[in-house]
Amino acid sequence: MMLEGYYYHVNECHIDARSCRFRVELLSDCDVYRGHFPGHPISPGVFNIRLVKECAMRFFGVPNLYFSHIKQCRFTNLVSPERSPMIDILLEVEPTEGGHVVKATLSDEKQTYMKLKGELKRRTDHSFNS
Amino acid sequence: MTSITTIPLTDLIPQRAPILMVDALIGVEGSSAITRLSVRTGNIFVNDDDGTLDESGLIEHIAQSAAALAGYQAGREGATAPAIGYLAEVKDFCCQRLPRVGEELRTIIRQGLEVNGIRVIEAETYIHEERVARVQLKLFMDALVGKGGGQ
């Protein structure tokens, strides 16, 4: 499952050598809000982890990455398509043995929603740290 | 462990389809619990290309497992509807491999102290005898929802 087109659209994307910034629009008609939670739409925290990963996959041009390790991911404010429809994602990456460490921040003009530090690897055994 | 497989999950947690990620709470003893989930085709977190369960789905399954234990405890204390818990932190998530469609997860939850509404959870997920993931979670329990009677 890809969340792009279901949970969000990418509106802007700026890519540098070791960092990138995305602006995404959350889709209020995403059917995940039927279940999270009925009558009380809150973006699942894990969807925002997945959102970071999809931005990283776009940055690397590699479709099958996964977080083998998340050192820390802190959720400091709730995300909802009603209260925070536009979200900025800032990624910084550093190569490791067999993968990349990613530092990510989700925020908008008002506040920070999530900070994550973790290591992405490929789902297959192939390294992608070139 | 006390067997409580007969309690419907929807009595324990507020999540619903398409993001219900626990099949059953299969045992509780003190502040520990075991849950299970079969990974099926059509699960919102399954990757289309290779049938793996995305790690975000694994974390959601673990968080809902912790919420199921919290809901069970709240029910014994008289709550009439499941409380909403929000993820506050994911710490030291280690994923040895991603589960696949057809596999059954068993997750062991160990609940630590609750301070200012934040509950600390240690969890491990197994497929048969193989541990596929472990993590420490902090969940913020929303005390205003699901407490029968009180305001």
Question: Can you tell me about this structure?
Answer:
The complex is a heterodimer of chains A (130) and B (151). Chain A has a 6-stranded antiparallel beta sheet, with helices on one face. Chain A is built from 1 helix and 6 strands, in the order ββαββββ. Chain B is mostly beta strands. Helix content of chain B is 15%, strand content 40%. Chain B contains 1 helix and 6 strands; from the N terminus they run ββαββββ. In chain B, strands 1-2-4-5-6-3 form a 6-stranded antiparallel beta sheet, covered by helices on one side. The longest helix of chain B is centred in the middle third of the chain and has 22 residues. The radius of gyration of chain B is 15 Å and the shape is globular. Chain B starts with 23 loop residues before the first strand and ends in a 9-residue tail after the last strand. The C terminus of chain B is likely disordered. At the A-B interface, helix 1 and strand 3 of A face helix 1 and strand 3 of B. Strand 3 of chain A pairs antiparallel with strand 3 of chain B, so a sheet runs across the interface.
